[in-house]
Design a protein that fits this description.
This protein has 5 helices and 7 strands; from the N terminus they run αβββαβαβαββα. With 175 residues, the protein is an alpha/beta fold. The protein has a single domain (27-168), classed as Glutaredoxin (3-Layer(aba) Sandwich), CATH 3.40.30.10. It is globular, with a radius of gyration of 21 Å. The N and C termini lie far apart (80 Å).
Length: 175
């Protein structure tokens, strides 16, 4: 009888302990930036060794996309994004598709397979994704010509071209 009461007591104490400490935010965890705030600058290299940063591309409209090759949405959304990149690149549209926690070889193989021509900076340890509060793949940030975050889109959003077109229509003439 005593051991059953003792077991119940420890179960209750353990449950309370887990509830209190499991719900606390982990140290170093960041949240998504707020709309209308300056995008966080970074320096990341692509598989070809070129370094990319937002400061270097100021004056362009940037779609900053966090992705990985295991993401099913990325497989069919990337060609949609590529189409608009090719169409609007000369007008100041830049896609920086940041590959998260994968090797340069994996990122390069994926982009070659899908004939992707926009830059693919690498985030091998996930630090940049963490700084941006990315908790799901894909996550997209639309950054205006002044470096301000205007939209945050998480998950499957560019399955249809219309979503990307609507996102870009305020920045480019899409006739």
């Amino acid at each position: 009888m005593v051991s059953l009461k003792l077991l119940k007591f420890f179960s209750v104490v353990l449950s309370i302990f887990l509830l209190v400490f499991a719900c606390k935010e982990k140290p170093g965890k960041s949240s998504l930036p707020k709309l209308g705030t300056a995008a966080i600058d970074f320096n990341c290299q692509d598989p070809k060794g070129q370094t990319w940063s937002l400061d270097k591309v100021r004056g362009k409209v940037v779609l900053l996309r966090f992705w990985a090759d295991w993401c099913p949405y990325c497989r069919y959304e990337m060609p949609v994004i590529e189409k608009y990149y090719r169409k609007l690149n000369k007008e100041g549209f830049l896609v920086l598709a940041v590959n998260v926690k994968q090797s340069p070889e994996v990122a390069l193989a994926f982009t070659v397979q899908l004939d992707i021509t926009f830059p693919v900076p690498l985030d091998p340890d996930g630090k940049m994704a963490k700084r941006y509060g990315v908790y799901a793949i894909p996550t997209n940030f639309l950054i205006d010509r002044d470096g301000t975050i205007r939209e945050i889109l998480i998950g499957e959003v560019f399955k249809e071209e219309k979503a990307l077109r609507d996102l870009l229509k305020d920045y480019f003439r899409l006739g």
